[in-house]
């Protein structure tokens, strides 16, 4: 009689689940793994930032409907992409993440993420609004 390890299939399923719960965002030649839980924290940071009228003051009112459009977190492991409404999470350099919105009327928005060790929270460190010439 052959001795098999106990419950080999559940073990394989657990490993597969852990691998599928990470999205490797491209950062040039390297990549940064983002878990579903982290993506949720980054999305909350963007929501908190956009709730503050002082932060929105840097955005032209004509773009409010795009910037503040209803946001739902989409975690697409198959295509290795994370969306939060019209915003897409991207890796700018190792350990530098931002939410980026595709250009709206030749204007693009990038909200950079930062970590506050004292409060153990993520927040937006800077919102860049860039107008492109046609």
- Estimated helix fraction: 25-40%
Q: How many whole angstroms does the radius of gyration measure? A: 19 Å
Residue runs with pLDDT of under 50 for 5 or more positions: 11-18
The pLDDT mean sits at 85
Structural category: alpha+beta
Give the number of helices. Answer: 4
Give me the oligomer status.
single chain
Main beta sheet: 6 strands, antiparallel
Number of strand segments: 8
Shape: globular
- How are the strands of the largest sheet arranged? 3-4-5-6-7-8
The tally of structural domains comes to 1
Distance between the termini: 75 Å
Determine the strand fraction and express it as a percent band.
35-45%
Succession of helices and strands: HEEHHHEEEEEE
How is this structure best described in words?
The chain is of the alpha+beta class and 134 residues long. It has one domain (8-131). Helices cover 28% and strands 43% of the residues. The chain has helices spanning 8-20, 36-51, 53-56, 64-67, and strands spanning 22-27, 30-35, 73-76, 81-84, 87-93, 96-104, 107-116, 121-131. The strands form 2 sheets. It has a 6-stranded antiparallel beta sheet, with helices on one face. The protein has a two-stranded antiparallel ribbon with strand order 1-2. Strand 1 (22-27) and strand 2 form a beta hairpin. Mean pLDDT is 85; it is low at 11-18.
Overview in brief:
With 134 residues, the chain is α+β, with helices and mostly antiparallel strands. 28% of the residues lie in helices and 43% in strands. The strands form two sheets. The chain has a six-stranded antiparallel sheet with strand order 3-4-5-6-7-8, covered by helices on one side.
């Amino acid at each position: 009689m052959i001795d098999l390890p106990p419950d080999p299939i559940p073990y394989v399923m657990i490993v597969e689940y852990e691998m599928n719960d990470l999205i490797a965002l491209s950062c040039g030649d390297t990549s940064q793994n983002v878990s579903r839980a982290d993506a949720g924290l980054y999305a909350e940071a963007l929501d908190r930032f956009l709730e503050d009228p002082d932060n929105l003051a840097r955005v032209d009112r004509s773009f409010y409907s795009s910037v503040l459009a209803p946001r739902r977190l989409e975690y697409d492991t198959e295509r290795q992409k994370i969306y939060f409404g019209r915003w897409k999470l991207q890796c700018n350099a190792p350990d530098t993440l931002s939410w980026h919105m595709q250009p709206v009327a030749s204007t693009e928005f990038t909200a950079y993420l930062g970590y506050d060790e004292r409060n153990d929270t993520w927040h937006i460190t800077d919102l860049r609004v860039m107008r492109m010439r046609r």
